[in-house]
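Section handout 9: paired folding examples.
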Amino acid sequence: MGEIHDGWDARQTADRRTDAELVAAVRDSDRGALRELFARHEPWLATRLSRRCADQTVVDTAIQDTFLAVWRKPGGWRGDGEVAAWLWGIAVRSLLHELRPRANVVERLRTLRRSPAVSAEEEVLARVEHSDVGLAFSRLSPDLQAVVQATVLDGLTTREAAALLGIPSGTVKSRMSRARTELREALL
Protein backbone atom coordinates (compact mmCIF):
# COMPACT_ATOMS: atom_id res chain seq x y z
CA MET A 1 0.00 0.00 0.00
CA GLY A 2 1.44 3.42 -0.94
CA GLU A 3 2.09 6.09 1.59
CA ILE A 4 -0.81 8.50 1.89
CA HIS A 5 -0.22 12.24 2.12
CA ASP A 6 -3.00 14.66 2.88
CA GLY A 7 -5.65 12.25 1.56
CA TRP A 8 -3.77 11.61 -1.69
CA ASP A 9 -2.21 8.28 -2.62
CA ALA A 10 1.28 9.02 -3.96
CA ARG A 11 1.04 6.00 -6.29
CA GLN A 12 -2.08 7.16 -8.02
CA THR A 13 -1.70 8.04 -11.67
CA ALA A 14 -1.06 11.63 -12.64
CA ASP A 15 -4.04 13.78 -13.49
CA ARG A 16 -4.40 13.68 -17.26
CA ARG A 17 -6.35 16.93 -17.54
CA THR A 18 -4.75 19.80 -19.41
CA ASP A 19 -3.59 22.85 -17.52
CA ALA A 20 -6.59 24.75 -18.89
CA GLU A 21 -8.94 22.05 -17.61
CA LEU A 22 -7.24 22.16 -14.22
CA VAL A 23 -7.72 25.93 -13.97
CA ALA A 24 -11.38 25.48 -14.86
CA ALA A 25 -11.65 22.87 -12.10
CA VAL A 26 -9.98 25.25 -9.63
CA ARG A 27 -12.74 27.75 -10.50
CA ASP A 28 -15.11 25.08 -9.19
CA SER A 29 -13.08 24.84 -5.94
CA ASP A 30 -11.38 21.56 -6.88
CA ARG A 31 -8.40 21.32 -4.49
CA GLY A 32 -7.07 18.29 -6.35
CA ALA A 33 -6.79 20.38 -9.51
CA LEU A 34 -4.83 23.02 -7.61
CA ARG A 35 -2.60 20.30 -6.16
CA GLU A 36 -1.94 18.98 -9.69
CA LEU A 37 -1.13 22.47 -11.03
CA PHE A 38 1.28 22.87 -8.12
CA ALA A 39 2.91 19.49 -8.78
CA ARG A 40 3.37 20.31 -12.48
CA HIS A 41 4.58 23.87 -12.18
CA GLU A 42 6.17 24.44 -8.76
CA PRO A 43 9.53 22.82 -9.63
CA TRP A 44 10.30 25.00 -12.64
CA LEU A 45 8.83 28.12 -11.03
CA ALA A 46 11.03 27.62 -7.96
CA THR A 47 14.11 27.07 -10.11
CA ARG A 48 13.53 30.16 -12.23
CA LEU A 49 12.66 32.37 -9.25
CA SER A 50 15.80 31.13 -7.46
CA ARG A 51 17.84 32.50 -10.36
CA ARG A 52 16.43 35.94 -9.56
CA CYS A 53 16.61 35.78 -5.76
CA ALA A 54 19.10 33.87 -3.62
CA ASP A 55 16.89 33.95 -0.52
CA GLN A 56 15.02 30.62 -0.59
CA THR A 57 12.53 31.84 2.02
CA VAL A 58 11.49 34.71 -0.27
CA VAL A 59 11.24 32.32 -3.23
CA ASP A 60 9.10 29.89 -1.20
CA THR A 61 6.81 32.72 -0.11
CA ALA A 62 6.46 33.89 -3.73
CA ILE A 63 5.54 30.35 -4.82
CA GLN A 64 3.01 30.06 -2.00
CA ASP A 65 1.52 33.44 -2.92
CA THR A 66 1.36 32.38 -6.57
CA PHE A 67 -0.78 29.33 -5.92
CA LEU A 68 -2.83 31.16 -3.32
CA ALA A 69 -3.61 33.75 -6.01
CA VAL A 70 -4.59 30.95 -8.40
CA TRP A 71 -6.91 29.50 -5.76
CA ARG A 72 -8.47 32.87 -4.95
CA LYS A 73 -8.80 34.15 -8.51
CA PRO A 74 -8.58 31.37 -11.08
CA GLY A 75 -10.59 33.63 -13.37
CA GLY A 76 -7.40 35.69 -13.76
CA TRP A 77 -6.50 33.32 -16.54
CA ARG A 78 -8.85 34.36 -19.32
CA GLY A 79 -8.32 31.24 -21.40
CA ASP A 80 -5.93 32.79 -23.87
CA GLY A 81 -2.22 32.06 -23.87
CA GLU A 82 -0.52 29.35 -21.88
CA VAL A 83 -1.37 28.61 -18.25
CA ALA A 84 2.37 28.28 -17.56
CA ALA A 85 3.00 31.83 -18.81
CA TRP A 86 0.13 33.11 -16.64
CA LEU A 87 1.59 31.32 -13.60
CA TRP A 88 5.03 32.76 -14.36
CA GLY A 89 3.60 36.28 -14.46
CA ILE A 90 1.95 35.78 -11.07
CA ALA A 91 5.15 34.27 -9.63
CA VAL A 92 7.38 37.13 -10.81
CA ARG A 93 4.97 39.73 -9.44
CA SER A 94 4.81 37.81 -6.15
CA LEU A 95 8.60 37.73 -5.96
CA LEU A 96 8.86 41.44 -6.70
CA HIS A 97 6.20 42.13 -4.07
CA GLU A 98 8.26 40.20 -1.52
CA LEU A 99 11.42 42.11 -2.42
CA ARG A 100 9.83 45.56 -2.45
CA PRO A 101 10.32 47.43 0.80
CA ARG A 102 7.02 48.35 2.44
CA ALA A 103 8.23 50.20 5.52
CA ASN A 104 8.28 53.99 5.78
CA VAL A 105 11.30 55.88 4.43
CA VAL A 106 13.11 56.16 7.77
CA GLU A 107 12.68 52.45 8.46
CA ARG A 108 13.85 51.57 4.94
CA LEU A 109 16.98 53.68 5.41
CA ARG A 110 17.71 51.94 8.73
CA THR A 111 17.41 48.46 7.23
CA LEU A 112 18.91 49.23 3.81
CA ARG A 113 22.05 47.20 4.44
CA ARG A 114 20.07 44.20 5.64
CA SER A 115 17.51 44.27 2.80
CA PRO A 116 17.95 41.90 -0.14
CA ALA A 117 19.30 43.87 -3.07
CA VAL A 118 16.99 44.38 -6.03
CA SER A 119 18.65 42.98 -9.12
CA ALA A 120 19.52 45.13 -12.10
CA GLU A 121 17.13 42.97 -14.14
CA GLU A 122 14.22 43.84 -11.85
CA GLU A 123 15.02 47.55 -12.02
CA VAL A 124 15.17 47.49 -15.82
CA LEU A 125 11.92 45.53 -16.07
CA ALA A 126 10.14 47.98 -13.79
CA ARG A 127 11.32 50.93 -15.91
CA VAL A 128 10.45 49.18 -19.18
CA GLU A 129 6.95 48.30 -17.97
CA HIS A 130 5.99 51.97 -17.82
CA SER A 131 7.75 53.04 -21.01
CA ASP A 132 6.75 53.09 -24.68
CA VAL A 133 8.23 49.59 -24.97
CA GLY A 134 6.05 48.37 -22.09
CA LEU A 135 2.96 49.87 -23.69
CA ALA A 136 3.82 48.30 -27.06
CA PHE A 137 4.43 44.94 -25.33
CA SER A 138 1.06 45.12 -23.56
CA ARG A 139 -0.63 45.53 -26.95
CA LEU A 140 0.80 42.27 -28.31
CA SER A 141 -1.47 39.24 -28.37
CA PRO A 142 -1.08 36.91 -25.36
CA ASP A 143 0.61 34.29 -27.58
CA LEU A 144 3.23 36.79 -28.71
CA GLN A 145 3.66 38.14 -25.18
CA ALA A 146 4.31 34.63 -23.87
CA VAL A 147 7.04 34.02 -26.46
CA VAL A 148 8.71 37.40 -25.85
CA GLN A 149 8.53 36.86 -22.11
CA ALA A 150 10.04 33.39 -22.33
CA THR A 151 12.83 34.20 -24.80
CA VAL A 152 13.72 37.81 -24.09
CA LEU A 153 12.75 38.49 -20.49
CA ASP A 154 13.45 35.00 -19.11
CA GLY A 155 16.37 34.27 -21.42
CA LEU A 156 15.20 30.84 -22.51
CA THR A 157 16.44 29.23 -25.70
CA THR A 158 13.95 28.60 -28.48
CA ARG A 159 13.80 24.93 -27.49
CA GLU A 160 13.27 25.72 -23.79
CA ALA A 161 10.56 28.27 -24.62
CA ALA A 162 8.86 25.72 -26.88
CA ALA A 163 8.86 23.14 -24.09
CA LEU A 164 7.56 25.65 -21.54
CA LEU A 165 4.80 26.94 -23.81
CA GLY A 166 3.93 23.54 -25.27
CA ILE A 167 4.42 24.62 -28.87
CA PRO A 168 6.91 23.62 -31.61
CA SER A 169 10.25 25.46 -31.84
CA GLY A 170 9.31 26.75 -35.28
CA THR A 171 6.21 28.37 -33.81
CA VAL A 172 8.34 30.09 -31.17
CA LYS A 173 10.58 31.48 -33.93
CA SER A 174 7.70 32.68 -36.10
CA ARG A 175 5.86 34.28 -33.15
CA MET A 176 9.07 36.00 -32.07
CA SER A 177 9.55 37.34 -35.59
CA ARG A 178 5.95 38.62 -35.62
CA ALA A 179 6.41 40.17 -32.17
CA ARG A 180 9.59 41.98 -33.29
CA THR A 181 7.76 43.37 -36.32
CA GLU A 182 4.76 44.54 -34.26
CA LEU A 183 6.98 46.09 -31.59
CA ARG A 184 9.12 47.86 -34.19
CA GLU A 185 5.99 49.27 -35.88
CA ALA A 186 4.49 50.35 -32.55
CA LEU A 187 7.67 52.19 -31.57
CA LEU A 188 8.07 54.14 -34.82
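Moving on to protein 2 of 2.
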Amino acid sequence: MTRMQDRFVHYRLGGPASGGGVLRPLMWVFGLIATGLAVTVGAVLAVLTAAAVAVLAVVASVMVFFTGMALRARRTVRAKASAEGVIEARKVDGTWVAYGWDRQGR
Protein backbone atom coordinates (compact mmCIF):
# COMPACT_ATOMS: atom_id res chain seq x y z
CA MET A 1 0.00 0.00 0.00
CA THR A 2 1.06 3.52 -0.53
CA ARG A 3 1.49 5.93 2.30
CA MET A 4 -1.73 7.82 1.40
CA GLN A 5 -3.79 4.60 1.42
CA ASP A 6 -2.26 3.65 4.75
CA ARG A 7 -3.36 7.00 6.25
CA PHE A 8 -6.84 6.53 4.84
CA VAL A 9 -7.16 3.13 6.46
CA HIS A 10 -5.86 4.49 9.77
CA TYR A 11 -7.99 7.66 9.98
CA ARG A 12 -11.30 6.57 8.54
CA LEU A 13 -14.44 6.84 10.70
CA GLY A 14 -14.04 3.59 12.58
CA GLY A 15 -10.32 3.96 13.14
CA PRO A 16 -7.75 1.29 12.40
CA ALA A 17 -8.63 -2.38 12.36
CA SER A 18 -7.13 -2.84 15.83
CA GLY A 19 -9.81 -0.61 17.44
CA GLY A 20 -10.03 3.00 18.54
CA GLY A 21 -10.86 6.00 16.43
CA VAL A 22 -12.31 9.38 17.26
CA LEU A 23 -15.86 8.73 16.13
CA ARG A 24 -16.25 5.20 17.48
CA PRO A 25 -17.96 6.21 20.80
CA LEU A 26 -20.21 8.63 18.91
CA MET A 27 -21.23 5.92 16.44
CA TRP A 28 -21.90 3.57 19.36
CA VAL A 29 -24.26 6.16 20.92
CA PHE A 30 -26.03 6.70 17.59
CA GLY A 31 -26.41 2.93 17.24
CA LEU A 32 -27.90 2.76 20.72
CA ILE A 33 -30.34 5.56 19.90
CA ALA A 34 -31.35 3.88 16.63
CA THR A 35 -31.90 0.58 18.43
CA GLY A 36 -34.08 2.30 21.05
CA LEU A 37 -36.16 3.98 18.35
CA ALA A 38 -36.61 0.69 16.48
CA VAL A 39 -37.74 -1.07 19.65
CA THR A 40 -40.16 1.77 20.44
CA VAL A 41 -41.68 1.73 16.95
CA GLY A 42 -42.01 -2.05 17.13
CA ALA A 43 -43.77 -1.84 20.48
CA VAL A 44 -46.20 0.81 19.23
CA LEU A 45 -47.02 -1.28 16.15
CA ALA A 46 -47.58 -4.36 18.32
CA VAL A 47 -50.00 -2.44 20.54
CA LEU A 48 -51.89 -1.09 17.52
CA THR A 49 -52.15 -4.57 16.03
CA ALA A 50 -53.45 -5.99 19.31
CA ALA A 51 -56.03 -3.19 19.53
CA ALA A 52 -57.21 -3.89 15.96
CA VAL A 53 -57.60 -7.60 16.73
CA ALA A 54 -59.56 -6.76 19.89
CA VAL A 55 -61.92 -4.45 17.98
CA LEU A 56 -62.50 -7.14 15.34
CA ALA A 57 -63.28 -9.68 18.06
CA VAL A 58 -65.82 -7.35 19.67
CA VAL A 59 -67.51 -6.63 16.33
CA ALA A 60 -67.65 -10.36 15.52
CA SER A 61 -69.16 -11.10 18.95
CA VAL A 62 -71.85 -8.47 18.44
CA MET A 63 -72.67 -9.90 15.00
CA VAL A 64 -72.95 -13.43 16.39
CA PHE A 65 -75.18 -12.15 19.22
CA PHE A 66 -77.56 -10.37 16.83
CA THR A 67 -77.64 -13.38 14.51
CA GLY A 68 -78.63 -15.59 17.43
CA MET A 69 -81.33 -13.16 18.49
CA ALA A 70 -82.72 -12.99 14.94
CA LEU A 71 -82.85 -16.77 14.63
CA ARG A 72 -84.51 -17.05 18.05
CA ALA A 73 -87.12 -14.44 17.06
CA ARG A 74 -87.76 -16.25 13.80
CA ARG A 75 -88.41 -19.55 15.64
CA THR A 76 -90.69 -17.82 18.14
CA VAL A 77 -92.78 -16.16 15.42
CA ARG A 78 -93.09 -19.43 13.52
CA ALA A 79 -94.24 -21.28 16.65
CA LYS A 80 -96.82 -18.62 17.54
CA ALA A 81 -98.18 -18.57 13.98
CA SER A 82 -98.88 -22.29 13.98
CA ALA A 83 -100.37 -22.18 17.47
CA GLU A 84 -102.84 -19.37 16.67
CA GLY A 85 -104.79 -21.37 14.10
CA VAL A 86 -103.18 -20.21 10.90
CA ILE A 87 -104.21 -22.53 8.10
CA GLU A 88 -102.27 -23.56 5.04
CA ALA A 89 -103.63 -22.89 1.53
CA ARG A 90 -102.27 -23.95 -1.82
CA LYS A 91 -103.32 -23.14 -5.34
CA VAL A 92 -104.32 -26.30 -7.20
CA ASP A 93 -105.46 -25.99 -10.84
CA GLY A 94 -106.37 -22.30 -10.44
CA THR A 95 -108.36 -22.85 -7.23
CA TRP A 96 -107.22 -22.25 -3.68
CA VAL A 97 -107.47 -25.29 -1.44
CA ALA A 98 -107.21 -24.74 2.33
CA TYR A 99 -106.06 -27.40 4.80
CA GLY A 100 -106.72 -27.43 8.51
CA TRP A 101 -109.74 -25.13 8.73
CA ASP A 102 -112.13 -27.88 9.84
CA ARG A 103 -109.83 -29.85 12.16
CA GLN A 104 -111.06 -28.22 15.40
CA GLY A 105 -114.61 -29.61 15.01
CA ARG A 106 -113.53 -33.25 14.86
